[in-house]
Amino acid sequence: MAxxxxxxxxxxxxxxxxxxxYAFHYCNVRPxxxxxxxxxxxxxxxxxxxxxxxxxxNGTELTYYFYDKPGDGQNVLLADGSSRFVPxxxxxxxxxxxxxxxxxxxxLGLGVRFKEVxxxxxxxxxxxxxxxxxxxxxxxxxxxxxxxxERTMNIGWxxxxxxxxxxxEIGHTLGFNHEHQNPFSGIVWDEEKVYAALAAPPxxxxxxxxxxxxxxxxxxxxxxxxxxxxxxxxHYPFGxxxxxxxxxxxxxxxxxxxxxxxxxxxxxxxxxxxxPPVEELSDLVLAESRRLKIAxxxxxxxxxxxxxxxxxxxxxxxxxxxxxxxxxxxxxELKFRGGDDDSGEDRNAQIKLRLQRGRRYVLRVRMYYxxxxxxxxxxxx
Length: 381
Description:
By secondary structure, this protein is α+β, with helices and mostly antiparallel strands. The protein is 16% helix and 23% strand. Strands 4-1-5-7-6 form a 5-stranded mixed β-sheet, with helices on one face. It has a 4-stranded antiparallel β-sheet with strand order 10-17-12-15, with no helix packed on it. A 4-stranded antiparallel β-sheet has the order 11-16-13-14. The model is unreliable at 1-22 (pLDDT under 50).
């Protein structure tokens, strides 16, 4: 990807003369799904579930929409007690920059796909350009729980000169957290300096917001792998002196290289590998169980062809944690029809639906965790 060295999250040039030493624009990520916890979850099982909990099923088509109506926006309360309407719609060049950012991810040949739609009702990802609200996105599958008509992502500054910010926010939508919050990074902060830096313009953050986005370490069960990638597009830049360890950042800034790092590319391709066309999937035979020979974090897609129209059940069997989702193939597009997630619970995933003879369906099964390899099966009847 051709970008200058991490223009994302830097202060705009016209701010530089007045900006403080640490004048970076930072993303204020919104929460993801709650981590699976409870007495049934061992460390290994919890880690297997939580590293994938925010990620989409591979093959998902993420539809996105840009708010563009004059009435799209919200009233903001001002310091003097008055209010002002601030629009969510953005200029054409900003929208085009975000399209380019989606294309940065799409060019990797991922199994997850992106499609711009003309209606907010069709969209899973709804993007605004509200000035003064910062740049942010909800994390992964948490966007499904955002109320219809509300934004799931905001671009708060000019990304025509700052493409990495848009790439970063889409990374959150794909389920990736901030890399500088990796508990295995070894970062030791000068916390009071961090609070002071983020309380100043251009961020003006509270201590709570700074703690959530920077100082808070992610739970180890939610992070796959034990290494740190300071060049990740999901990593903030930091001015010299905010970090005490590693020691070199006491005297020099931490500046990611810009764009997707090699590890970003490897990780997203691992989670969302390229998908074969539906015609190449194998069939799940009615009333015959199929053993799932997939490892934790992997997924299998199977075709289903009902011999007659009636109610059917689809379920997994075995001591495992799985996510089931059924889609109907409608003119080449897979439309979601039902799903179930049994992760962290003492049961198996099950779907009950009326399926139509002559129609084609695809069942997707994600394996979070299995107590023993090869002892989980899926069946429909």
